[in-house]
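Recall the central idea of this unit: under ordinary conditions, the amino acid sequence of a chain determines the structure it adopts. In this exercise we apply that idea directly, starting from the sequence alone.
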Amino acid sequence: MMGRAEKPEKTPEEIVPSDLNIPDNYVQHTLKTVKPLPPFKWSNFINDLNWLNVIILCVTPVLGLIGASTTKLRWETFLFSIFYYYLTGLGITAGYHRLWAHRSYNASLPLQYFLAIVGAGAIEGSIKWWSRGHRAHHRYTDTDLDPYNAHKGFFYSHIGWMLLKPRRKPGVADVSDLSKNPVVRWQHKHYILMILIVSFLIPTIIPGYFWGDYRGGYVYAGVLRLCFVHHSTFCVNSLAHWLGSSPFDDKHTPRDHVVTALVTIGEGYHNFHHQFPMDYRNAIKWYQYDPTKWFIWTMQKVGLASHLKVFPENEVRKGQLTMELKKLKATQERLAWPTDSSDLPVISWESYQEQATKRPLILISGFIHDVSNFIDEHPGGPHLLVKFIGKDATTAFFGGVYDHSNAAHNLLAMKRVGVLHGGMRQGLDDKSIPPSQRLKIARYNELSPYNSSTAYSDGEGMLG
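Accordingly, the structure predicted from this sequence is:
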């Protein structure tokens, strides 16, 4: 959570990308060759817990609750606490996340300093530390090299990964660009002092100076506001990987949901974000809740931000279409479909007429149909079917007697039992394809030209 004192940093000229020479099979190689620490045990909790984070994340809410129970909440302090929550939260969402971790837009120097300062008030580590972990999260999502791997459970991805010393070092992620950034270097150097001033001193002084509520400012705008900012941000790692849908890709756990957006200052459309991480938006619809997007857009309008990155709409729609087709394919697989023509026996006209004397068979569009279980249910009356037994009813079916509906076409196809030899041009006559199959989502093997032939059989087993 908090930045640590580190060795003197290299000058920008000395910094090289940390992932410059990693092997192609880095993930598999690392998981195979680098052993993680032993699993957490309560018998060894003194050594396994990250005590700095435990104090920040566990003691802070206790202090806040004790303070709230003994301190009256004034309406001025309440409103200021909400304002300060959004201010420090935007330091993370618009600053740490979308500006520095993902470089989704360019910020002027004044805006960078502002976001660096208010972001420190969230006490979630320095920009450099936070962005390094977040880039690893995107690069190794849902693997053991992901610092907050959602597959390890809701609690772990929400807060457990910070309370516990990591069992494995997060995967390598390059932050050489941030190491060259003077604002990032400045914040990293003065981080401890900044969190004391921004997170506690300022929210105490402002309510105290303007309406005489120093204690309330400290408790509500300082301590409890900090707790809300923490868990708001943490929900991006937990709730956003658990609640909602996957409208762009379901390969990994990120989800889209309006509830997550409401509690994370707009970071709830997480499936979109993981697909298009360099887009400055999380929500792509105007009505979706994304105050971080609105803030960045406003900064552009006043000249403090520029080069807002937006993924091409055509490619975004491809992602949506892919998932829509996948859902339709799943629905399609649950439905019963007609027997493929290549699996039906090919019957001569003479054999068809002979077998029609034994069972009610009707020829339509080159397919032979067994209508024995439908004669009494036919809306036009059984006589219309009976008179076509052993005959070709194609013309009558397609408007000669009645122009049948899509439902009738689909139902008829389910009654196919054979193909008339020479009676249709396989795959060329559109009337032979039921309406429900004309837009059917094909498997790759169904597209093969070698699967279009129909086996010839003139045996007597068609009715068996």
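Residues 1-6, 450-464 have pLDDT under 50 and may be disordered.
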